[in-house]
Amino acid sequence: MTTNTMLRSLRCLVAALVLFRSSNLVFATDLEVEEALGENRVLVPYAFYNKSLDTAVVASIVLVFIGVTYLKNELLVIDGGMGGELQRRSGHTGGLWSAQALLDDPELVSKVHTDYVTSGADIIITNTYATIPSYLSKCGMQNKYVELADVAAKIARKVADEAPNKVLIAGSLPPLGESYRWDLVPANETAQPIYQTLAQTLHPYVDLFLCETMSCVRESVNAVSAARHVAGSDMPVWVSWTLAEEPGGGLRSGETVAEALGALADYDVDAYLFNCTTPEAITTGVAELTELTDKPIGAYPNLFHVPEGWTLDNDLQVERSEMSVETFLSFASAWQKAGVSMIGGCCGIGPEFIHALSSSKLSGCPKV
Ligand SMILES: [Zn+2]
Predict the structure, then answer these.
(1) Contact at 8 Å (CB) between 191 and 222?
(2) I need a surface site. Which of 56, 116, 200, 255 has the fewest CB within 10 A?
(3) Which residues of the chain fall below pLDDT 50?
(4) What distance in angstroms lies between residue 105's CA and the mean position of ligand 1's atoms?
């Protein structure tokens, strides 16, 4: 259970105590309860007693109900994949991938965000996965990364501000080379200034930084240290690692989750997540992570299975997974039981999955 959940549960129980105390119930000492209840004391929590045993029993039942309801893990719903959804809707599969829409059709980016909010997402992620110099350099636009990140952040902010409910914006800090290619992670002295510039650009518009699809320890340290530098102590910094497709294989680099966590000890990371991998790998990763941290844990899997050597723009084809919405929900349920408090989707997981998740009883608890 997260600290936030515990605090909320405590608040609910305190509120219940105040309610009952003001409605003819009094606190009783152990001795008074012993004397008054006699043989019936097993039926009543010793904290409450009124002259009427019936009232005390009813109070107990209501308290247990409130406790069960509010002690359940809350679930924050993260949005689904952005890049694939933009491609599917625009029919544009080449160019600069998700950054292309910022140039051609910013309104489409806004529409995808809005559809996720309408589907019940509590957290939307900025469309900044491809607004990085290396990717934009494919079209000679490497110097436009700040400008495009700014456009993406403003779009997300507008959607969140116009949402009928509270929606948080996670500013995406992605891999600066190819996704999954831990062997192509830029040198630290190259990566950190870029991450800092991206974070500074996003900072005015976002509620937290999300260093996502981190494939190795060094990549996550570069992104998280830069994010924390910009965030200071006021803004949360989350990190999300991509795991080897084979469950139990650690990060894509082969480094362990424990090693990755340990390397970030100095940066006060606020939440740990896994994304952009198979749900089976995430299940194993979650079991490992819950043994290592009390911080909130999140998960947003791929629908696809990704073959060895795949990159965003090579010829290798991802393998379509048969994961249905029902299977996704059953993974989500298992993760929640294991202690995961934030769930969404990555590549191939669209608004229909997010809607099903937010409509399920999994997320039936109060939101932040
Ligand atoms: Zn993905």
Answers:
(1) yes
(2) 200
(3) 1-5, 12, 15, 18-19, 22-34, 36-51, 66-72, 365-368
(4) 22
